[in-house]
Amino acid sequence: MKLALERLSLRHPAARGAPALDLDALQLASGEQLAIVGPSGAGKTTLLHALACALRPRSGRLLLDGADPWALSARELRRLRAELFLAPHIPPLPPRQRVVTAVLAGRLPRMGLWQSLRSLFYPVGIADADAALERFDLADKLFARVDRLSGGERQRVGLARALVARPRLLLVDEPLSALDPARARQAMQALTESARQQGATLVCTMHDVPMALAHFPRVLGLQGGALAFDLPVGEVTPERLQALYARHPEELAGLPAARDEPPAPVGAARMHCR
Ligand SMILES: Nc1ncnc2c1ncn2[C@@H]1O[C@H](COP(=O)(O)OP(=O)(O)OP(=O)(O)O)[C@@H](O)[C@H]1O
């Protein structure tokens, strides 16, 4: 799915003061992969929610495949939302549910009412759930109960659910918060590879900047709800990142220090030394 934002301004319904997000323009081609970075409160999750048609812009436009979702009828909007998947950083998994059911729940938005009710008792597509879990090294948990999983396992179940949903636009909010570095690398690999294989557009907010640089071809920096940069990863220099996180340097871990000579591009290989 391709997407575009035009002069988009957005404030949370309960919020006062300046908009949480104010973006002039953003365009993504179908199948592109974009990481969103920026300090806490920069507006990363807000942008993701705007793209997921979960927050309505105060002004400006969002276009998904050329159509403004907020100009669609309720039925058309529902159909469009079934093509998107927003994965929150803590997946909402019912504690007593089996992992297989939790993963296959990713398909519910595309099902009719009866089909979806039936699937809660008689899961269909178990092999697909198994294959998605396998990508996150969790196949042995297929029939485990969700409340018997660790926080990191639950987070990976949430990502497996996103893959099983096979959306055309996959929006992932901070997927690595509960994962150790090795699991985090594996999860990013699985996520980006699967999105590529499925032809899905992938937008992911990332707290771990080196991980974002290592896995995404394009990186967008947000600061105070505004665009700081939107660049191919090779042009995202340590100096740019240090400027982005200038007021919260503690959030920018694992980067080489800025140098006095002209900045060289930060390549993915360089970031692996973390
Ligand atoms: N539900 C809400 N109601 C009111 N204001 C909100 C709400 N959620 C976020 N905000 C405000 O919107 C701004 C952007 O928040 P957002 O969650 O998008 O930031 P973020 O970059 O994702 O932060 P973090 O990295 O800490 O998750 C913040 O100033 C925040 O206080």
Structure description:
This protein is α/β, with parallel strands linked by helices. Helix content is 34%, strand content 20%. It contains ten helices and nine strands. The strands form two sheets. The protein has a six-stranded mixed sheet, with helices on both faces. The chain has a three-stranded antiparallel sheet with strand order 2-1-4, covered by helices on one side. The radius of gyration is 19 Å and the shape is globular. It binds adenosine-5'-triphosphate (ATP). Adenosine-5'-triphosphate binds at residues 12, 14-15, 20, 38, 40-46.
Instruction: Give helix and strand order, one letter per element, not per position.
Output: EEEHEHEHHHHEHEHEEHH
Identify the CATH architecture of the largest domain. Answer: 3-Layer(aba) Sandwich
Report the bound ligands by name, code or SMILES: adenosine-5'-triphosphate
| Major sheet | 6 strands, mixed
The dominant shape is globular
Low-confidence stretches: 258-274
Number of domains: 2
Major β-sheet strand ordering: 5-6-7-3-8-9
CATH class of the largest domain: Alpha Beta
The CATH homologous superfamily of the largest domain is named P-loop containing nucleotide triphosphate hydrolases
Beta percentage is: 15-25%
Number of separate strands? 9
Helix/sheet category: alpha/beta
Q: What's the CATH topology name of the largest domain?
A: Rossmann fold
Tally of helical runs? 10
Q: What share of residues is helical?
A: 25-40%
Q: Give average pLDDT, whole number.
A: 87
